[in-house]
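hey
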């Protein structure tokens, strides 16, 4: 019968991850696996305990400074740099998640604004030049035929110092005529263009269907 010891423990950690994935591993075990990848050919159990005692939560660990990390017993430069680099990559990923530079991202964000909504509404998403969302205004008391609606959106765009905007019309009526949307889009496009603010998309949402103007061959010329 084979004996179980510390030798081969690193390999077993990796095999456990390959076989079961992260969902079957505790946070402590995942952290031990991560540390073992930064420290070659050495038992990291003592380092693991030292790290957990110094930083009780992962949030504290991955927001620690280099000096704070290096103050941990047995901490190596490569491990500290790995932690700092990983934190920076996570931060950059979160920043990129705010970018609405693709139609599918704009649609997902649009759906999130009306997740629990059952009534007709209009939303304007105000964006930076890098296509990151700055703010969103949802209107339930509006009319696509009213100049007041256009005035409210243009004023909010200026207040947000928006470089561009995209609009979402949510309607529970599956048979809602698109003609009002077309007229409204044309009117507000020119109103915003006078302020040097572009409309990059217009999305019509129903409970079961989506029309994304930038992806519709018949309609996307209206954004030009």
């Amino acid at each position: 019968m084979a004996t179980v010891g510390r030798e081969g423990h690193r390999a077993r950690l990796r095999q456990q991850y390959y076989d079961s994935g992260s969902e079957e591993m505790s946070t402590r075990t995942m952290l031990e696996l991560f540390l073992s990848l930064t420290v070659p050919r050495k038992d990291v159990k003592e380092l693991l305990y030292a790290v957990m005692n110094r930083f009780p939560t992962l949030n504290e660990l991955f927001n620690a400074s280099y000096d704070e990390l290096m103050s941990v017993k047995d901490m190596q430069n490569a491990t500290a740099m790995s932690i700092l680099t990983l934190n920076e990559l996570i931060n950059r990923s979160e920043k990129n998640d705010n970018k609405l530079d693709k139609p599918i991202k704009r649609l997902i964000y649009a759906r999130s604004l009306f997740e629990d909504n059952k009534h007709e509404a209009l939303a304007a998403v105000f964006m930076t030049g890098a296509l990151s969302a700055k703010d969103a205004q949802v209107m339930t008391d509006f009319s696509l035929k009213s100049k007041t609606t256009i005035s409210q959106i243009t004023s909010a765009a200026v207040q947000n110092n928006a470089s561009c905007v995209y609009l979402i019309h949510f309607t529970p009526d599956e048979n809602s005529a698109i003609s009002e949307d077309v007229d409204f889009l044309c009117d507000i496009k020119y109103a915003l263009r006078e302020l040097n603010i572009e409309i990059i998309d217009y999305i019509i949402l129903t409970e079961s269907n989506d029309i994304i103007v930038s992806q519709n061959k018949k309609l996307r010329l209206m954004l030009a």
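The chain has nine helices and five strands. The radius of gyration is 26 Å.
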